[in-house]
Structures are given as C-alpha cells and as structure tokens.
Amino acid sequence: MNKKAFAGLFLLIVIGAAALRFFDLGLRPMHHDEANQAVKFGALLEKGEYRYDRADHHGPSLYYLSLPFARVLGADRLAELNERTIRLVPAFFGLGAVILLLLFVPLIGKERVLWGALGLALSPVLVYFGRFYIQETLLLFFLTGFVAAVWRYKRNPSWTWAVTAGFFAGMMYATKETSVIAFGSIAAALLLGSLLRRKIRGDRPAPGKLGRKDTGPEDMDLEKPARSEQKKEEASGAKGAGRRFSADILMGLGTAILVSLLLYTSFFKNPRGFIDSILSFKVYFVRAAEAGFHVQPWSYYLRKLAFSKTGSGPVWSEGLILILAAAGIVAALRLRTDKRERLFLVFLSLYTVISTAAYSLIPYKTPWNILPFYLGFILLAGTGATALLHAFRSRAIRAAVFLLLAAGFLHLGAQARRAGWNYAADPRNPYVYSQTSPGFLKLVRRVEDMSAVHPDREKMLIEVVAGPYETWPLPWYLRRFGRVGYWTRADEAPPPGDASVLITDTEQAGRLESILNTYYQSEYYELRPGVFLVLHVRNDLWDEYLKSRAGK
Q1: CA 193: distance to chain centroid?
Q2: Pairwise CA distance, residues 411 & 317, whole Å
C-alpha cells in the first residue's frame, strides 16, 4: 500500500472516530462518577488547588489535563463548566489513541494498523467511554503510547524512545494507580516472550559450531588470532551497548518517576501525594476483596463484549473484534515473513491473554475497566483481518471476505452510534452502569423553576439530606446555586422549614414525613433505576410558582 492511499484511508478513519466522539457530548445526563470528578476538577480550576485523595479518587492527570480545555473555552469557575466542556477531554484522548496507532506502522505494517484503527474508532465500548469524564480513556491513550514506544525502542534503541516510553508510563500511573495491572501484564508478556524468543526467531547454531571436525592443524593456526581479535571487538561492543542500554533505562525510569511525582505532589505543593499513591494499593486490595455491588463473575467482561441483549432491547456484540483477535493470535504464531514483526505480535498476544485474565479474576468489575486490556484485542483484530484477506489467492474470495469485514465494521459503527445517542442512558445498553436517569433532569429543572420565582434567585437556600450514593450527581447540577448544604442524615441537618427547597432520599423522607407534610409540597423523581429522590418545595414558594404559571 502506497503512502498516499494509507494517509487518505487513515484520515477517513480519524474523521469517523471524531464524529462518534465529539457530537452531542451533553446529551447524556452526568453519571455520578463523572460529576464527582468534575467537582474535584472545579476546585483546581477555581483555586488552583489539588490534593490527591487515595480513598475516593484516582490519579491527578484527568484534572490537570482538563485545565487547558476549560481555559480555552472561557471557563474559570465550576459554575461556568458544562457537560460538553469536560467531556471534550476524554473525547480528545480517545481520538488521540486512534492517531497514536501510527506509531505501530513500523512494527506491524500499514494494513494491520488501518484495520486496528478502524476497530479502535468504531468499537462501541471505546466510543461510549470515550464520551465519559473518567480516567479510563486517558489510560488507554497513554497505554497505547507506552507499548508503541517500548517496542520502537526495542527495534531502534535510542534515548528518545526510552524517554518517550518513560513519559507515557509516568502518565499511566498518574492517571490510575491500578495501571500497575497493565505494567505487570506487560512485564509478564515480555518475560514469557523472551523465553519463547529462540523458538520464535528460529535461532539455530551457527555453522561449524556443533559437530564440526577440524580439517587440520593449519586451519586452527591460521584462524585462531583472527577469531581472538574478533571476540575482543565483540566484547568491547557488547560492553558499550550494555552501558548505553543501562543509561537509556535509567533515563526512561527517571522520566516516569518525575512525571508521576510532579502530578501526585501537585508540583511539590503536597509532597505526601506520591507516597499516598503507593499506599492506595491497600485501599484497592480491600475494595477488590469486598466489592459488594460490584462483584461479578470472571466471565463478565467477555460476555459483555461477545453478546448482550436485555429485555426488549437490541442485540449488542463486539464478537467481530474477538473473532478477528483470535485469528490474529493464530496468524502471529504462523507468521514467517518478518521475525521481528512476529515477536511483537506474540508479545501482544501474551499481553492480551494475561491482562484479560488479570482483570477477569479480580471480583471488583465495572464496564470501563475493559479498556486497558481491549487495546490488545483491537490490534490483534487488525492482524486477523489482514491475515484473512491474504489467506486466499482467488480475487473473488478476497472480495467476498473484504465485503464481510466491511459489513462487520459498519455494524460496529452502528452500535457505537446507538450506544452514544439512542441508548446512552438506557439500561439495555450493556455499558450503561448505574447511570443517572434522564428523568432526574426534571428535578433539576424544577429547582431552577423555583429559583426563578424566589426573591433570592440562585442564592435561595437548598438543603440536601441523602446518603452518599443518592447525593451524586446533585453537587454538579446544583453548582450554580450559592447556598447549598449537604447532610447524610436528617438528625444531622438543620430542622426543616428554613430551606426553600429540600431534597432527600426516600429513607430520610420517611423519617421527616410529618414535618414535610406540614411545610412542603413533595415530588418523587427517579435518580437511577430503582433509586428515587424526593424534592420538597416549601409551601409559600410553591404558591408563588403556581401564581407565575397561572399568569402565563
């Protein structure tokens, strides 16, 4: 494939990936995890302050990388942010992951990269969470860069690739502490790959080394000095290469540590931040063991990817990627044309199997954790698609295979469109997980309606009495109101009556029923499937609202 054809096709893929990630970013209601991240970012935006919290938040890269997007779009305060602004961050890095696949061209070739980029651009799970303000898409981006840089270094050792790999590694860790799972999987794959290297590369003893019979003393006498000099030169070259390799590794590790240290310590304003990131491993071990609501069987991720159908909803499947990835593994083992290419593909196969097993064996599971191990599936699928196209000599059969592949990828794109738009908040979408219901936005609009007739407008007093799980994403949606208080229990909150608007969960509403019936009008709104909030509007404010409606 010539450069112009490759560039044109790759550009089309990038445009398609951008369309799926950037349009209508404000369509879906904010997930409670998104809202939590956004409010955390708001503190950095307004005050320039960030402190790593090992108990409730992941790494700092998401917040710091959100700053330029907010500044460019003219937001200086939390109240000036909107869903589109903050979701531009994952959308940008999701698109960036597609573009980073260009780094793999010297490793696996143009055709495999094109098919891999198409899978990365159209995968429903990658598109869906590429529109989600959480860390996973950023982790995917930095993981892609890290794997590419490591193997580009293996191909052509240089300090620039070592430092590049270190930068991506540091950003991975600064994005999620649990990136150590990916690092461990990569290390295990490299180790196993090195053990298989002799067989993969087809190494054979050099001619004359085994079973050689010397023809006579003259051969030994003439060759011995030359061989001795050659060995000295080889030993000297090996020492020099070893020193360069050690220096490169130190530069790469130093870069990784420096990058993560800068971010976790808030650029040295919070020196303990980096230590806390290491101590967070205990938190995640405990969380994994006591996953509660998040406990899922080992097959959870693969089942979601292979086939899903809930009730009257449509069928969802990324089986095409899984099948092509399996074909890619077989092709990697059978590849004979380029042994260096084969080495990388075998590593990729090992990484994919190991990382998938690691994430699958951890009881704590959420759909967005698919992203780190799915990169391997995507690249192997590109290899599988290429292998299938070249498996047949007949042009007619090749054309038929191409049409089948095209239809399969179009189906992926249609599912991605459905996931990001029609079913963005629908529980029948397999990637929707504890998603805020669209009906919750009616509660937000009702609060805004009340503030419009209140004399204090957006400074009217609002009290929220609800458990942590029921409170979010309220802090995001009430960010423009100046007087909002939050309590988890009714006996900790001020007595009802002072607040113009009171929002409670159903449990706290039951405890305050007699008082609420006296002073407030109450309405129920679905927060998430099976979870409700109760909006209580003080009687005098409710009367003012009804008068304003009657006058229209």
Answers
A1: 26
A2: 9
Sign (positive or negative) of CA dihedral 508, 514, 515, 521? positive
Cβ atoms of residues 58 and 33 within 8 Å: no
Structural tokens at position 293: 């609501």
Residue range(s) defining the domain that contains residue 412: 3-202+251-422
Amino acid identity of 393? R
Residue 511: inside a domain: yes
Phi, psi for 521 (deg, rounded to 5): -100, 135
Mean pLDDT of the residues in the chain: 91
Q: Where are the beta strands (DSSP E) in 441-488?
A: 462-465, 484-487
CA distance 137 to 122: 14
Of 228, 33, 219, the closest CA to residue 135 belongs to: 33
Whether residues 385 and 518 fall in one domain:
no
As a residue count, the chain comes to 552
Q: Which residue has the tokens 């942590």?
A: 468
Query: CA–CA distance from 302 to each of 148, 182, 328, 370 (Å)?
Result: 25, 18, 17, 9
**Structure token pair of residue 56:** 């409730």
Give the pLDDT confidence of 471-487 residue by residue, as tens digits. 999 999 999 999 999 99
Half-sphere exposure of 461 (CA within 13 A, CB side): 8
Residue 287 clears pLDDT 80, i.e. is over it = no
Q: Do 310 and 382 lie in a common domain?
A: yes
The number of C-alpha atoms within 13 Å of 22 and in the hemisphere containing its C-beta is 10
Please give the Cα distance from 473 to 480 (Å, whole number). 14
- The four Cα atoms 263, 268, 274, 275 give a dihedral, to 10 degrees, of -170
What span, in angstroms and rounded, lies between the C-alpha atoms of 3 and 12?
Answer: 14
Q: Which tens digit of pLDDT belongs to each residue from 491-530? A: 888 887 889 999 999 999 999 888 898 899 999 999 999 9
Using CB atoms within 10 Å of the CB of residue 113, give its burial: 0 to 12 exposed, 13 to 18 middle, 19+ buried. Answer: buried
User: Which of 393, 422, 451 is the last residue in one of the domains?
Assistant: 422
How far apart CA 373 and CA 353 sit, in angstroms, is 9
Neighbours of 344 (CB within 10 A): 22
